[in-house]
Amino acid sequence: MGSITLSKVSKTFGEAKVIPSIDLEINDGEFVVFVGPSGCGKSTLLRLIAGLEDVTGGQIKIDGRDVTDAAPAERGLAMVFQSYALYPHMSVRKNIAFPLKMAKMEQSAIDKKVADAAHILNLTDYLERRPGQLSGGQRQRVAIGRAIVREPSAFLFDEPLSNLDAALRGTMRLEISDLHNQLKTTMVYVTHDQIEAMTMADKIVVLNRGNIEQVGSPLELYKSPRNLFVAGFIGSPKMNLLEGDYAKAKNGKTVGVRPEHIGLSKDSGLWKGRVSVAEHLGADTFLHLDVDGIGPITARAGGEFGASYGDTVYLTPDETKLHRFDDKGLAIRA
Amino acid sequence: MARKVTTGAKIGWTILAWVVALLIFFPILYALITSLKTEQEAIAGFSLIPSGTLENYITVQTQRDYFKPFMNSVILSVGSTILALIIAIPGAWAMAFAPGKRTKDILMWMLSTKMMPAVAVLLPIFILFRNFGLLDSRIGLTIMLTLINLPIVVWMLYTYFREIPGEILEAARMDGANLWKEIVYVLTPMAVPGIASTLLLNIILAWNEAFWTIQLTTTNAAPLTAFIASFSSPQGLFWAKLSAASTMAIAPILILGWFSQKQLVRGLTFGAVK
Amino acid sequence: MATQNTKTLARLMMAPSVIVLLVWMAVPLAMTLYYSFQNYNLLTPQNVSFAGFFNYQYFYTDPAFFQSIWNTMLLVLGVLGITVIGGVAIALLLDQPIFGQGIVRILVISPFFVMPPVAALIWKNMIMHPGYGVLADLARFFGVQPIDWFAQYPLFAVIIIVAWQWLPFATLILLTALQSLDSEQREAAEMDGANFFNRFIYLTLPHLSRAITVVILIQTIFLLGIYAEILVTTNGGPGYASTNLTFLIYRTARLGYDVGGGAAGGIIAVVLANIVAFFLMRAVGKNLDK
Q: What are the UniProt keywords, alphabetically (chain C) (predicted)?
């Protein structure tokens, strides 16, 4: 079991209101990602759930039990830290066994659990090494191993992949998703990287300045962002946000169109633009264009779309997939 | 890093560096050489080649009971350092891992107590010691050395503890360690190198402290500093013996010092220079 | 980290060191302040009476007082000057590629570990002695009249001894700082056409400024209290020629058994030390804030 309920949770550091008031329901077995720009309060929110910080107001429940004032260890949660926080003086085996030892488990049971965890995480050959002798990815797996042996009711991840290089980050993303599918335990995952959020989450919580901007599945957020902030934050490359005559014609203050929802042609189209930068990624080509009467626009083309600096390209936005926002920045639902 | 260096330049720098180093080291070397001379040789003019007698060392022990001040030095320096560590470790731990608004001020204040001139409190301390019967006692002097080195011990430990990442302690807390277990299993093993350097450096400082040790002792508790200072009056007569006593007084700490070069910089600059 | 529990606990853990230091600061200082207003001589302990500002007046009008302050300043500044300049020079030298660098380092830092009485006695008897010292031998070798250091230049002789003890400290710290200078910065400067002199002025020296500040702060703390070196060599003389403030107070208090006078001197020393500390701490506090 591992459902977490936050009611009216708030946190103040001195004068600064980091989190004004948050209500959130995390269901058992869900993979929930907190995402937002740095300083949005996502890590603080995680640490409040972990019990590493005291809440200023509100209530936190785990499986219906009020844990607002409980010590971290009493909450039955496990956490994977950004710096991995491995104990440098202990072998991998001892690192993974540490929480079990703290729970006064029998040595034979500890050995078995450590062996199982090491097997799942491909760490069997490294059990006698010290953390200093491991690569970044291996350290990450040890940190996860230390978390899973406790069989916690939920895992908390605090930007666990941000210290890894790009290739390893991709691999670890898959491993963590795979782990979630195997264990089916609740996971709460904090990141500033919307790609991690989109690829891993069952449910994404977009945070900005300590407030929840939107909660929903990755596709919900992609298809119908509730406001300008979510629209700009989710999706890569970013949604084009247009103001002015075109927006007025569509009855909105701002109109958003994703780069992948713009048709491109060399002969004709609604808008005419010149290529300023063409990024050829192989499968895709991202074109950054100056469009007459509109401004800069990013559009996605197929990998074979040959265009280079200075070329003239015609663009046609897919009008069925436009996002319209009013002058408060909220989405207008037709 | 691969800098081009000609062998010629390297030899030139080497010669210059060795000349400077030997000049600086010369007084110590010459004391060692003199300690191996007879008293006649010692005043017979400049010579780097002694007759190699060990008689002076034997005389220092038999006539002046060198072993007693030596043991006093060991007891005082080690005792006061351990006492200071016991007081300072919890405080430094708290300041490093749960810093408050005033932590920085408290640290600065502690350092500033080192700037209080010792001589300003010489009389009260002397009178207090006399009234409590602590004059010329090892206990009294141990307390004294603990007090004067405490700020430095706190500072050094603080700079070492601060380098232990806070996330590791949080991880231990998440893993179910209570405060006691956190200290035993996680903090202590990680802090041991820092504590060891602090220990080493403060033994050196306490060993060489030469104001209170001279002021507050006469014979019983007198460590080597006071013992050697008592040699200042007999002019020229016992140079070889004085050299032998000096050599023995500085040798142990010199060797400790060589091993603690790196920590010395960190420790004495309170982590400001690494 | 900062749960309420941890905060309370943190205060408790800090309490021993803070309280011990507070008592150690306050009690003797309060006693010194009290004694400084008393007529109190250890030879006649039954005659204790209120003295008003007499002790201060006595200390202030003593010609030795101003000489001792002047001597203290010369001692501190002289040693600082020698050790900082010498330290930078030797650190630069040791930073060059040389054979046997480890041993050279050990030789250079050794004087720092020599206890003050030993350092002073070695210099007094074996180096600077007008009859048998190495310098006298050297002078005679060149056919010059040997210098009687402690009679002719007593304060300068003390400065030399103390500087010898602290030169290693300055060197070691400056060398450590020097070695932390990014080699890419140096290479960039070489590419930019800066010669050795320019690199020293524009790159090395600014990089060392923090370490130099630290050296000055820490040495000042210790140099203001120089005592054993004077006791063993000149005993403050001839006259008051090598008496610093510490030594003058020691003389009044311990040799003159004058508790009141010594205490007044102590309070003056505290005030002066605080003035120095105020400026030093401000400078250093600024420099240490990263």
A: Cell membrane, Membrane, Transmembrane, Transmembrane helix, Transport
Inform me whether the pLDDT recorded for C170 exceeds 80. yes
Chain B contact present for A54, CB below 8 A: no
ipTM of the assembly? 0.84
DSSP 8-class letter at A332: P
What is the domain partition of chain A in residue ranges? 4-232, 240-325
Closest Cβ–Cβ partner in C10, C132, C225 for B94: C10
The answer to whether A7 touches A58, Cβ cutoff 8 Å, is yes
Question: Which CATH number is associated with domain A240-325?
Answer: 2.40.50.140
The burial of C25, by beta-carbon neighbours within 10 Å (0-12 exposed, 13-18 middle, 19 or more buried), is given as middle
Q: How far is B161 from chain A (nearest CA, A)?
A: 14
Per-residue confidence (pLDDT) for residue C139, from 0 to 100: 83
Of C113, C256, A43, C272, give the one whose Cα is nearest residue B207: C113
The architecture in CATH of the region B66-232 reads: Orthogonal Bundle (1.10)
B15-52: per-residue pLDDT in tens? Answer: 899 999 999 999 999 889 888 888 777 777 777 777 87
Q: What is the distance between the alpha carbons of residues A255 and A244, in angstroms, rounded to a whole number?
A: 9
Q: Do C93 and B13 touch (CB under 8 A)?
A: yes
A53 touches chain C (CB under 8 A): yes
Mean pLDDT of A98-124: 89
pLDDT at A198 > cutoff 60? yes
Q: How many domains does chain C have?
A: 1
Angle between helices B103-113 and C259-288 (to 10 degrees): 140
**Per-run averaged pLDDT (10 residues), chain B, 274 residues:** 66 89 91 84 75 80 83 92 90 83 82 80 85 85 90 87 84 84 84 86 87 84 85 65 87 86 75 67
Distances (CA, A) of A297 to A238, A257, A265, A278, A284: 10, 9, 15, 12, 16
CB contact under 8 A, C115 and B249: yes
CB atoms within 10 A of CB A195: 14
What range does the domain containing C204 cover?
Answer: 62-288
Contact A52 C4 (CB under 8 A): no
Domain spans in chain B, listed from the N-terminal domain onward: 7-57, 66-232
